[in-house]
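Tutorial, part two.
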Amino acid sequence: MLDRLSEIVPDYPSEGISFKDLTPVFADAQGLRRIVDAIIEPFLGTFDVIAGLEARGFVLAAAAAYATGTGMITVRKAGKLPRPVHRDEYTLEYGTGVLEIHRDDVAPGTRVLILDDVLATGGTVGSALRLLELAGAKVTGVGVVLELEALHGRENLAGHKVHSLQLV
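Running the prediction step on this input gives:
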């Protein structure tokens, strides 16, 4: 289903990168349901709240939170949140970035599942892990739709359970 519904966009976001666009999958009701069910299945019963990474991770996390009757935390790019934040700078395969969460979005000891669309170098997900752990949360796992295996992002998440739906 992923291969049938997703689109490959060459040279995006920069030259030499082939971007696998999942937005057509999200627009397909059956595709979205199947992805959400599959991405959370290995973690059922282990989390209290789901953290979604900006931006496509928001789609997955919101749908998964609704499906499981849990809440959702937004992990945002810098400057998007109005209250005091925890902040983390990270490196990704084509530059650097900064992620933030509100300091009071997650209570210490809360079990959190992180969801995002793609695991590449592990920089973005690793940043979210650090932010949530800084807030006192216990990250119980990471779920992604696509894992770019050649970039070894899983190595940057050592000690955490990672589940990907497709290796590319």
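The chain has one domain: 2-167. In part three we will examine how such features are distributed along the chain.
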